[in-house]
Amino acid sequence: MRTVHSNLKIRLLLLTVCYVTFTFSQQKIEFDSGINGQIINGYTGTLLVKTRKGLFGIDPKTKQVSWKNMDLKKVDLSEYSEVPYTSIVIFTQKPLISSKAISNTFNSRGKAKTILNVVTGHVLFDSDSEGFKAVNHTMILPQKKGVLVDGVKDKDLMISLFNYETGQQVWETKGIESNFFENTKGVFFDDEKILLDTREDIYWLKNKQLIKIDGDTGEVLFERADVTSMAMNASKDILFVFSNKLGAKKLGEENAITALDVKTNTVVWKDPIKIWGNISDTAFEENTMVVITSKGFNVIDVENGTKKWERSEPLPLIKKIVPVEEGYLVVQDNYLVRINDMGKKGWGKKLRITHSFQENPVYLLEDGQEILYITPSKANRVNIENGTKVWEKDIVLNSNGFIGRNLRLSEHHFGVWNDTVNKLFPVYAGNSFYIFDQESSKAPVAIDTFNFKRTLPNLKIRDKGYLLYHLNQFYFYDLSGRQLYNKSYPYPEKNNLFSETFYWTKRGFGTYTSALGFAGNQIAKTFNSVLVSTDLGPLSTATSNIYGTYLTYRASLENVTELNQMDFDLLNMSAVLNRINTSRKNEGLLLIVALREEETEIIELDIDSGEEESLKTVGYTYSDFAVDQIERQVYFFDKKIVFIEALNN
User: Fold this and answer.
1) Strand locations in 176-332, DSSP E?
2) d(Cα 130, Cα 135) in Å, to the nearest integer?
């Protein structure tokens, strides 16, 4: 009898455990007017819901409306961008004819911007309420708790700093007696660059006019004309100014580089360094500065103020430079060339590696005596010493013909991921999937072909393989490329937020990326830095996408992330850090929404094993829904109502 009683207890305990393992809760939120837009913030999980009357924020933890703002009813969710690893987002409103140059010249209505903290609902900056007729740039300065803005205000080009906690203007520079403002207004073709030094003073370059602004007061500290470009070292204590004021005969042919101490504004080198060509990019490596120009490139010793060679070989249209033993490998125009330590050609001939010079990104992966190149067109291994190809034939990654490529009759989707643990590079190109082994001399073959339609699929890297997925199609491969399983679930072709996820990401929308496949372990090692969004421009030029072996772990993050030095307070960061920690708990599981004729099924897929479990069936088919993989909940939208299905385990 005791045995039977014990077995009964065990069964009841197991049933209880099974019940607790997956608990469900549905939350219903009803609005006064119809829902006409919604989006999940990838870095906080906040669900933004737009109605005709305003914008609402729903907290993913409490599943309640945490804030509402009726003044934001006109924001455009299709012009929404996230500042990476923060709770800050930017809404841009464009006029019918959007042109920064026209707005500056004719004082017409230009872009309006609203900067919002999605956790608190607090508006950090609103250009309309601050009197801006058009905004050119906005830059978030966490060290100053400020938003730096330039645009048209009261018929003049203005630069202003606003405190994003109080919303108050800290300072405004009208530039009444400044040549910078007069010479930059109405410029249709201008290179604009903004840098901050170690003292948090601001350097602004526009139309070859450079000004230095005191970051605390807005006072213009100095001006300099005929500046073609500028750069700053990693410690931000030396400013490098490039100028081509060298006489009419050498205009556009030669630039002089002057190094300035940011604290004293005095020159660091005895004489300026002359560089051949106009500056297009710079990169820093230890105590050297690599300068890429319209003619070629050179390497500057920052401490001594000397250059490595007088002139390199003529190399216009440089897209990539990778240092190797005794020289550099350079992707120039459509070709791969080697340059030795004297700046001269190291191979007898150059290798064509792309169909068009416009193709990007280009990957060069060094492995001892060989280099693996992967471009949107083709791939091969090359002997670094003599420039001969290792594989007899290139791997063709884009088979479109000349007419199709140049007229862009069809889209070519190309993605490269870096599996650092296994030293492998999964590649998706032209509806085919490859796995490149950097250390193997064997050429990979196309593993499989797909029909993912108008987008680049997502890829999730696991210890023992790769999950390639799009919409409700899932393919899992082991490290050798053997398919372990493929699964497909019913899926609506239209009016589905899940379907639009990758399409919007490709357009730069970048909103559901983190919610669907957040890689918490990919966050930067330090948070003591400045974060800016891509439309703001980077605050540091310590690294360059052109110089060095540049790889992206997740291609979808590539378009939205510029992570340098951040110093946000704990309150603003807590939601982001909590989400990162939460994301690590269920990295091996995916929630799938299968829409059938009269019901909606929520399924859990174990990525590594391919095992699936039906978690819940809802007796209704919703046309719009969004999945938050991190919080393990699904949002269904129906007219004025949001249904939240939370699945906790």
Assistant:
1) 192-196, 202-206, 209-213, 220-225, 227-232, 238-243, 254-261, 273-276, 279-285, 288-293, 297-301, 306-307, 318-324, 327-332
2) 11
Over range 293-316, report the average pLDDT.
92
Q: What are phi and psi of 181, to 5 degrees?
A: -70, -35
The identity of residue 494, as a single letter, is: K
Q: Which of 280, 211, 283 is nearest to 252 (CA)?
A: 280
For the chain, the straight-line distance linking the first and the last C-alpha, in angstroms and rounded, comes to 35
Here the tokens at position 426 are 């999964």
Separation of alpha carbons 58 and 49, rounded Å? 8
Collapsing DSSP to helix, strand or coil, 440 comes out as: coil
Contact, 425 vs 417, CB < 8 A? yes
The predicted model scores a pTM of 0.78
**Which tokens belong to 459?**
């890829």
Alpha-carbon gap, residue 429 to 377, rounded angstroms: 9
The amino acid at 273: I
For 463-479, how does the pLDDT look when each residue is reduced to its tens digit (9 = 90+)? 999 999 888 899 999 99
Q: Where are the beta strands (DSSP E) in 306-384?
A: 306-307, 318-324, 327-332, 335-339, 351-352, 363-367, 370-374, 378-383
- In this structure, what token pair is assigned to residue 397? 């990654």
Measured CA to CA, the distance from residue 432 to residue 450 in angstroms comes to 6
**266: number of Cβ within 10 Å:** 9
The pLDDT assigned to 532 comes to: 31
Q: What is the maximum span of the chain, computed from C-alpha positions, in angstroms?
A: 106
How far apart CA 79 and CA 95 sit, in angstroms, is 12
**pLDDT tens, 425-439?**
999 988 899 999 988
* Identity at 482, one-letter amino acid code: R
Beta strands in 234-317 (DSSP E): 238-243, 254-261, 273-276, 279-285, 288-293, 297-301, 306-307
**Residues 6+ away with beta carbon under 8 Å from 185:** 104, 105, 156, 157
Q: Which residue has the tokens 């002057």?
A: 258
Instruction: Please give the angle made by the CA atoms of 556, 557 and 561, to the nearest 5 degrees.
Output: 150
